[in-house]
Amino acid sequence: MVEFQPSVTDLVNEEPRTGLRPLKRSKSGKSLTQSLWLNNNVLNDLRDFNQVASQLLEHPENLAWIDLSFNDLTSIDPVLTTFFNLSVLYLHGNSIQRLGEVNKLAVLPRLRSLTLHGNPMEEEKGYRQYVLCTLSRITTFDFSGVTKADRTTAEVWKRMNIKPKKAWIKQNTL
């Protein structure tokens, strides 16, 4: 028996679930939305995500909210870092192992809300502090507001746990 594995490309043939407001479409039939909710789909990778977003959305560059919670993702795919207007990213309930995966998200200038709880990385020591040090602009993490005390704790943790990168000075020999 062959088990069906959903993929991002399956979205092209799916009708979006109806929400409180009707979905607006452009003249070309593409969605005029700034969010993609792909939660609870057993996705294990984001192959072709950019192409699918371009097929479905009139302005994929305006994507501000992506919900990929409760899938089977094992890493943070670099494709997510190409959406510079992304402000909300839900990745909770996946299978992301390495805390270092968070580093990829540092390039997103507008990211303000992030969820990662329910991933194996949550068990790593200093999980919250590491994320807050790495993504200093986020204001909500795992559905909790980030306080001044959180920032202070994260900074102290960073000084105690993360070795600064040494600046190598090239010696000029005469």
Automatic annotation (TrEMBL):
It holds the Pfam family LRR_9. The keyword Repeat applies. PANTHER family: LEUCINE-RICH REPEAT-CONTAINING PROTEIN 51. GO terms for cellular component: cytoplasm. Coiled coil: none annotated. Keywords: Cytoplasm, Leucine-rich repeat, Repeat. This is Leucine-rich repeat-containing protein 51. The gene is LRRC51. Its main location: cytoplasm. It is found in: Cytoplasm. Gene3D superfamilies: Ribonuclease Inhibitor. InterPro entries: Leu-rich_rpt, LRR_dom_sf. It comes from the Eukaryota. The keyword tRNA-binding does not apply.
